[in-house]
Amino acid sequence: MSVFDLTGKTAIVIGGNGVLGSAIATGLVSHGAQVAIAGRDVEKAEKVVSGLAEGSSRAFQVDVLSRSTIAEMADKVIEWAGTIDILVNCAGVNSKTPFFEVSDEEWDRVFSVNVKSIFMASQIVGQHMLNSGGGSIINISSVSSGPPLSGVFAYSASKAALNNVTQYLARELAPTVRVNAIIPGFFPAEQNRKILTQERVDNIIRHTPMKRLGDARELQGTAIWLASDTASSFVTGALIPVDGGFTAMTI
User: Which PANTHER family match (predicted)?
Assistant: First the structure.
């Protein structure tokens, strides 16, 4: 267990008030980290905090589309904990608008949340990590990042961009800071509930060797591994599927 011990580490989980983010935060806390739950809805973040061990976490409000509020949130976390060792970028937005109906505004919104916010947070927190001598950034991508899924054009393109950003940052911030991405398969998260119709779920399960959707808790192990400087000390620039075999399947 010492390989995965996060005692003394501080993590920010942006989007930690959502289904996937809160599960990852729970896993980090269970291995000794103190975790800042950051989200736009601070009441939801407080609810997540209330379900974690007392004193292990704190809620912080952040607008991922605003550089100034990201910077302010990071400063408050440092004031609270003294440092930031782990950043989990878990905020995201989906879209099921057909290709010919996607407006410029929708395209910009999807890319702003799914790509630009990660760029800004990684720039702000990554600089702190470089100055303090180390850290781990974990981005949450998607199996739709390639090959793309039908019906989610803007989302798929944004997640493909995120994969590229992850690998670029891994090169840019090495050897001090490690940057990796988890590529979840299909989980019943808030951002994709409207898209996961029963017909689509049935098609997904037929294409998934594990024959089911994922449970958010099944992301914890990969996140803990990537957060640990001991367990994943030589892992950077990796895009790691946690998808029940979805990306290993063909016809």
Answer: 3-OXOACYL-[ACYL-CARRIER-PROTEIN] REDUCTASE FABG (PTHR42760:SF115), SHORT-CHAIN DEHYDROGENASES/REDUCTASES FAMILY MEMBER (PTHR42760)
